[in-house]
Design brief:
The protein is an alpha+beta fold. The chain folds into 2 domains: 8-113, Phosphorylase Kinase, domain 1; 117-191, Orthogonal Bundle (Transferase(Phosphotransferase), domain 1), CATH 1.10.510. 26% of the residues lie in helices and 28% in strands. The strands form 3 sheets. Strands 1-2-3-5-4 form a 5-stranded antiparallel β-sheet. The chain is globular, with a radius of gyration of 17 Å.
């Protein structure tokens, strides 16, 4: 399922609670914007709702008792974010999973805290290496994030440099984008 084709202007028009909306990124299944709600910096993530497998032409939010893979994954991600409280994982923002229609597309969106900093991929491309202290911090912080997920029987299936952010404010690493996460009991030991 592709990412939604929407602009910052579309988002601002359809979601008046979001101010200072700016396009950040598009990839995988999400289109992401930076924004603010009452001065709080956040990101808003939008997902295109798949048609349900029932073939009746109704969107996943309309199909009785049938959730699309995208909707199910988003619900699991939100549920996980609600259960976790650690500085090593992004926190859910004030808008929970909300259906919205933009340009004829049926979408789901939610907000999460905006992490100011650089992702590990960018840091490595710019500098080539991390300092010894940064490497120790990276190992401890990502291990803490994984442990917190494991405690609620979840795994993160997309750990990569682009999904690890070094926070400007406290110098800690944060694991982002839990959309690929699934119940640990469903995971193969090879995925750990």
């Amino acid at each position: 399922m592709p990412a939604p084709q929407i602009s910052a202007e579309d988002v601002a028009r359809m979601s008046p609670d979001l101010q200072n909306v700016l396009f950040l990124a598009q990839g995988g299944q999400k289109t992401v914007f930076s924004c603010e709600i009452e001065g709080e910096p956040l990101v808003a993530k939008f997902l295109l709702v798949e048609e349900s497998a029932s073939g009746n032409g109704k969107s996943a939010t309309q199909a009785a008792g049938t959730l699309s893979e995208v909707t199910s994954r988003a619900l699991r991600e939100i549920g996980t974010m609600e259960q976790i409280d650690t500085p090593t994982l992004a926190k859910l923002g004030p808008i929970r999973l909300t259906p919205i229609a933009i340009n004829g597309q049926q979408l789901l969106f939610y907000t999460e805290e905006k992490i100011e900093g650089k992702d590990l991929k960018t840091l490595l491309n710019e500098r080539g290496v991390l300092t010894i202290e940064e490497m120790k911090c990276l190992g401890c912080d990502i291990a803490t994030a994984i442990d917190n997920l494991w405690q609620i029987e979840r795994i993160h299936r997309d750990i990569k440099p682009g999904n690890i952010m070094l926070r400007n404010d406290i110098g800690r690493f944060v694991l982002l984008d839990m959309g690929m996460r699934a119940p640990a009991t469903e995971a193969s030991p090879l995925l750990l």
